[in-house]
Amino acid sequence: MNTPIIFILIPMALSAILLLIPRATKVSTAATCITSVLLAILATLLPEDLTLTFADYRLVLGDSLAVLGRTLSITSADLTLVAWIFTLTLLWNLPARRFHISNYFNALSLGIAALWIAVLAVRPFLYAALIVELIALLSVPLLSPRGGQAGSGLLRYLVFQTVGMAMILLSGWLLSGVETAPSASPLTLQAAALVLFGCALWLAVFPVHSWMPMIGEESHPWVVTFLLGLSQTALIIFLLYFLDRYAWLRNLPGLFDILSWAGVFTIAVAGLLAAFQKDLRRIFGYLFLAETGYALLAVGLSRQGGLNYLALLLAPRALGYWLWGFTLSELLRLEPGGDTRFSGLKGLFTRRPWISSLIIFDMLSLTGLPLLAAFPAKRMLWNLLADQNAGLLPWLILGILGILALTLRLLRDLFEPSPQPAEPGNQSETLSFKIISGAVVLLQVLIGLLPFLFLPGFLRILEPFTILLPAA
Amino acid sequence: MATLQIASVTVALVAALANLVRRQWLVNIIALALQYLAVFVLLLALRPPLLALIKLLVGWMVVLLLLITLASLKSFLPGQAFFHFTPGEIFRAAAGIFIIFTLILTAPNLNQGLFASTPQTILISSLGLIFLGLLQLGMISEPLYIIIGLLTFLSGFELLYASLEFSSILEALFAAVNLGLALIGAYFLVKQEESQTV
Questions:
Q1: pLDDT per residue over A274-289, tens digit each?
Q2: What is the pLDDT of residues A156-174, one digit of tens each?
Q3: Do B146 and A169 touch (CB under 8 A)?
Q4: What range does the domain containing B148 cover?
Q5: B41 within some domain
Q6: Chain B within 8 Å of A133 (Cβ-Cβ)?
Q7: Which of A95, A169, A247, B71 would suit a FRET pair with B164, their CA atoms being 20 to 30 Å apart?
């Protein structure tokens, strides 16, 4: 027995079985949640020597598995990330049946989580590019369930993921040439450009971000927040593998400055574009884009300790995405076919005070408002940027102001009296919704107030990056 | 063998060009099948016949899957007369031909630089398929033609990559991606039909 079998093959096999029984949604939900929680606990509790002890019985787990001449490897250093991926799967599966989403969500979400772990476990890790493409293909039935046409955002998503895959694979071939001839500078630049542009396509960094708000508008928010949130975490870690593995890439003059610049510019563009949005469902795309910018900024500042804040932001960001998905999904559940444009949201606060408050709270939390979950890590990133490159600060401020302007615009519309009277048939916000979302809000506030209690465990995610970390 | 290679390059590029220009599903499906056959012949210069055959079989399975789905749908009836070309089609054809000629002219330079280990016929056909596929992806928004564009792009990329490196797991994953794309294409077609029926 070894860790790739436990954390990749078993969940994938279970996912395949569950795909055969799409109508048994309760079984599917229970199986996915139980598997996710067990695997997350196992990944958290496994000791460094990967030895399981039950009474007198001792089982030593291997950390690699050979598949067609390549290796899947999950060492003890990778287990925190594995635990986090299964925790996210659990968080999104627990209330999934509350919403009108694809019957395949449970099965496919478990399979996709296992595939993301495979992406990070395959060696040489460049082969991960094709697994990322398979994940994009598996996401299609979730993003666009039966009953409507495929949206153009989804088609663009497929195109960008496929082109990104080709670039990463081609860079893999170039890399072998670079390693044998480190002084070949044109080859180095070509390989670096392919790696960075491939990752930019996958992560939807500006200016190749157009599909993201479109997908937010076309697809169910619960599915979008899960798939994009998981991919963002895994792909940033994938980028770290590149930087950690290849010295020529790491030592490329100005690379980290370019990443910082790209991060700040992405935040600025996200804020600017968000400020002019008119549809609630499109907003997530821009919030996501800003978070990608923060992740890139943290990687760009890795030599000054930025990577720590990348890890510390994982939980606040995931909670923010979860709350956004949960709130919007509840709104769509209570008002199916309701207008999510700002003009249609007028008076929402009087009809749905809890949902309206949560939307505003979540936007402020993701922006990094003091006392909320993202603030401690974002504050440190802002300080680092001010120390290292104060010239980029106005762009960062522009991005933050853009999202704050959007929040104020939305706030005005939510409070404005509705031109039409409320429909009598509409359900009211349920107690269970209030309790669950209230607990997440409380958790976000607690993380913001006491980050040292909740967040340091996430620093273990950086353990595999032995070369990047000492420099940090 | 050289004549066969040149004929295969021509067939592959003409098929991709036909897919870029025309919007008649039967023409597109036949062109896609011919494109996979041409890629198979080109691959014979790089791989043992059995390994090259895998790509052909996967490609034809993709074609068959799309064909069966299209044939079962009511809304996909034959379009306009075959020899009638719209201005859009003429523009796409001109853009495609421009790309092909540019590639033929620049291939010797590319061959000396980045892709030194790639035979010139393979380089022209693979880059031709990649760029014609990309052109199709940029000019079309219908799901079927996006999928055909992606398949064209992928078959060009697979051909290029085959000249650079061989790995069994990579071949298996490429096959899975091609079949996955075909399944997604079929899924999009069924969805489109359902939404039109509703």
A1: 999 999 999 999 999 9
A2: 999 999 999 999 998 887 8
A3: no
A4: 2-77+88-179
A5: yes
A6: yes
A7: A247
